[in-house]
Specification:
CATH architecture: 3-Layer(aba) Sandwich
Order of helices and strands: EHHEEEHEHEEEEH
Number of helices: 5
CATH superfamily: Gcn5-related N-acetyltransferase (GNAT)
């Protein structure tokens, strides 16, 4: 088993795995609208290869939150959106998805990067420190279930209660270089 950086050559296998995991209509989900028009972050997006077969994937994306709380003086907050995360049906419940999520969190902590958010199952992702902020009232580019908008515990108290979440298009091209602050 090898965890390696996501590459262009993995595109078709990733798309097939995501279709199998989330259905062909997955592009209509709110998480796709939030990251529309941006490229994944290469140094935070991985695949898991076993015997030359792609069996799991995780991708991260640059997004932003424009606060509408007065205390933030309307500055834009850069965030990293985690997901989608998918594991092939034949390799479910073997810890591969957990390994990928932990790898992303480890790199983000090591490099002191932007805060992590995701849309996901709060019960499952709690084991990684993700939780919903109950008083959070963010505007997203479409309807969403508030309890599924998750923030990593490092960020939950720093992020504003009110804001507009969307793709960080202006930073999409420079993000991969900026995020590797050494």
């Amino acid at each position: 088993m090898n965890i390696i950086a996501r590459q262009a050559e993995h595109y078709e296998a990733i798309e097939n795995l995501l279709d199998a995991s989330f259905g062909k209509n997955r592009h209509s989900r709110i998480s796709y609208a939030i990251r529309q028009g941006v490229s994944f972050i290469p140094n935070l997006s991985f695949v898991l290869i076993e015997e030359q077969h792609l069996i799991a994937t995780i991708s991260c994306w640059p997004v932003f939150l424009k606060p509408i709380d007065n205390q933030y003086q309307a500055r834009t907050i850069e965030l990293i959106m985690v997901g989608p995360i998918a594991v092939s049906q034949s390799h479910q419940n073997l810890g591969y998805g957990r390994k990928l999520v932990r790898k992303v969190i480890e790199i983000v902590h090591e490099k002191t990067l932007d805060d992590l958010i995701m849309i996901g199952d709060p019960e499952y992702y709690a084991q990684f420190g993700f939780k919903a902020k109950s008083e959070c009232d963010w505007q997203l580019p479409g309807p969403y279930e508030r309890h599924r908008l998750l923030m990593h515990e490092d960020a939950i108290n720093r992020l504003p209660k009110h804001g507009i979440l969307g793709p960080n298009i202006s930073d999409s091209n420079s993000f991969p270089n900026r995020e590797m602050r050494l």
